[in-house]
Amino acid sequence: MRLDEQTRRDFPILERIVNGHPLVYLDSAASSQKPRTVIEAMSQYYARSHANVHRSIHTLGEEATELYEAARDRVHRFIGAASREEVVFTRGTTDGINLLAEALGRTLGPGDEILITELEHHSNIVPWQMAARDRGAIVRAVPLTREGLLDLDAVDRLLGPRTRVFAFAHVSNVLGTITPVARLAERARRAGAVTVVDGAQAAPHLPLDMSALQCDFYVFSAHKMLGPTGIGVLWGRRAALEALEPARGGGEMIKEVWIDRARWNDLPWRFEPGTPPIAEAVGLMAAVEYLEKLGMEQVAEHERTLARQTVEQLGAIPGVTVFGPPATVERGAVVAFGVEGLHPHDVAALLDEQGIAVRAGHHCAQPLMRWCGVVGTARASFSVYSSPEEVSLLSHAVASLRSHL
Amino acid sequence: MTPAARPALYSDTIRERWRRPRFRGELAGATGVAEDVNPLCGDRVRMMVRVDDGSIAAARFAGDSCAICTASADVVAELVEGRAAPAAAALGAEDVLAVLQADIRPSRLRCLTLPISVLQQALGR
Predict the structure, then answer these.
(1) How many Cα neighbours within 13 Å face the side chain of A232?
(2) pTM
(3) Share of chain A above pLDDT 90, in %
(4) B7 pLDDT band (50/70/90 cuts)?
(5) With 0-12 CB in 10 A as exposed, 13-18 as middle and 19+ as buried, what is A316?
C-alpha cells in the first residue's frame, strides 16, 4: 500500500473542505500537518501529567520530567546520535542557529570568516551576519552551479585558514538540492572550521545518521516533521558541545550560582535555560514514533516519487518553469516553479480557490531568488500523506491558470 | 464552514488594471521618487511624482509585483494626479479599495498598501 493510503486517515485536518474543494495541502515544507497521535499525546500530557520539569519533587513533576527526557532518548535514537547528552532541545531551527551563532560568534576575531552558501534560508544567513558584525568577521558564500547544486570547487577555494564556521543547509527549501554533508564536513574539518548544518528540510524526509554525516552541529524543527511548533533539536558532537560556551543564561543551565559567577550544568541542560517546551517535546516524541513506524527509507522513497512526478508534470506545461536540479538528480520534497506572466502570489491565490495550498514568495531565501532571477516562486512540497492524485490536481490546476487572470 | 457566496478573488477592476495598467512607466522630470519592497514576498514598487506648484501634475509607477499590488499602484497614481500634495499623501487603503471594488483578504492587504506608503515616501512624508 502506498504511504499516503496508509497515513491519510491519521491526519484529521485533511478532511477539511477549503473553498468548496477537499484540501490539497502542498505546503508541508513550511509546516507539516499533525497525525492524531501527536495531537492526543500533547492533549493527554496537559490533561494528566503537566508540571514543571527537573525541579519538582512531586508525582506530576516526575512524570513530566520522565516524558521530557524520554523524548530526548527517542530523538537520540532517531538521528543516530552517539549519546543522549548530544541532543539539546531548542525552540526550532532558527533558534538553534541563533544559539550557535551567538556562542560561536564570541570566539571570532576581526578578519575571521564564516562560510555559508547561496541557497540558504534567511535563518542560516542573518544570524551569521549579526555574529560577524559584532566581531569584525566576514561572511562569504559558496556559489551554485547552473543546475542549482553547490559548486564544490568553490568550496575548496573558499575554505581558507581564516574560515572558522561553515554553515549550510542539508536540503534547500526552494530548489530541493541535497548537499553532500559528509564530504563538506570533511573538507571543513581539514580547514579547521566548525560545521553547522541546517537540517530543517532534511529531518522530516530523509533517514538521518549523525555519525555518518560527520558534521559538528545539526539543527532542525519538530513542526516540519509532523510534530508541534515551538520545539526543535540542536544536535552537537559531544566534543563540539563541550567546547561551546553557553551564550544564554537562566535556571536549569547551571549547577551553582553566586552573585558574581556561576558554574554550568552538564550537557545537554547547559544549553536549555528556562522552562523548556515540555508538551512540545511530548508531541515531538509521538511524531518520531509515527515516522519510525512508517520507516524513513519508505518516507524518503514516497516523497522522491512525488517530487519527480511534480517536476515532470509541471515541466511539461507550456509557460511553466521548474527551478532546481533536473528530474534525474535526487532532490528533497520540494518543487519551486513559476508561471509565465503570473506573479507567484497570484498563482498561490488562484490555486487556493481550488483548495490547493502552495507557498508563494521568496521563501525566506532572497539571495537564492536573485540567483534564480525572480522576485519569488510558487512552491509545492510534500509529506507522508501527500498523494500522486494531489500532484495531478496541482498540475491540472496550474495548466489552466493563465486563463484565470 | 460554508464556501457559499464568497466574492471572486480578483475583481474585474483588478484584472483589468493588472492586464492593462494605465500609469505604468517612467516619469520624466519627476520631483519625487521612492521605492520599497514588501517583506512578505519581495515585491518591489517605485512611485514617481512630478509636483508642480504644490499639486501633483503627474504620477507613474514601476516595479515587479502581483496583480493586487500592480492594480493598487495604478489606482494610486490615477487618484493622486491633480491633487494637492498634502491631500495625495493622505490617501488611504479605503480610497483604493473603493475603486478596486474588491474584498482583499488580510494576508494580501500589504500588497494593496505598499504603493500607498511608497507614494508617501515619494512625497517626502
Answers:
(1) 22
(2) 0.92
(3) 95
(4) low
(5) exposed
Grid cell at residue A356: 490547493
- Altogether, the residues listed in chain B come to a count of 125
Assess A403–B contact: CB distance below 8 Å, yes or no.
no
Domains of chain A in sequence order: 3-30+296-403 (3.90.1150.10), 40-292 (3.40.640.10)
Residue B54 within a domain? yes
- Check A364, A394, A397, A398 and give the catalytic one: A364
On whether residue B57 sits in a domain, the answer given is yes
Residue B5 has pLDDT above 50, yes or no: no
Q: What is the pLDDT of residue B43?
A: 85
Pick from B3, B18, B108: CB nearest A20: B3
CATH number assigned to the domain comprising residue B36: 3.90.1010.10
Contact A376 B6 (CB under 8 A): no
Checking if the pLDDT of A369 tops 80, the result is: yes
- In-domain check, residue B33: yes
Mean of pLDDT values over B8-33:
92
Helices of type H across B50-101: 67-80, 85-89, 93-100
Instruction: Render pLDDT for B50-81 as a digit per residue (tens, 0 to 9).
Output: 999 999 999 999 998 899 999 999 999 999 99
Q: Which three cell numbers stand for residue A65?
A: 520530567
Q: In b/e form, how buried is each residue of A40-58, taking b as 16+ CB within 10 angstroms?
A: ebbeebeeebbebbbeeee
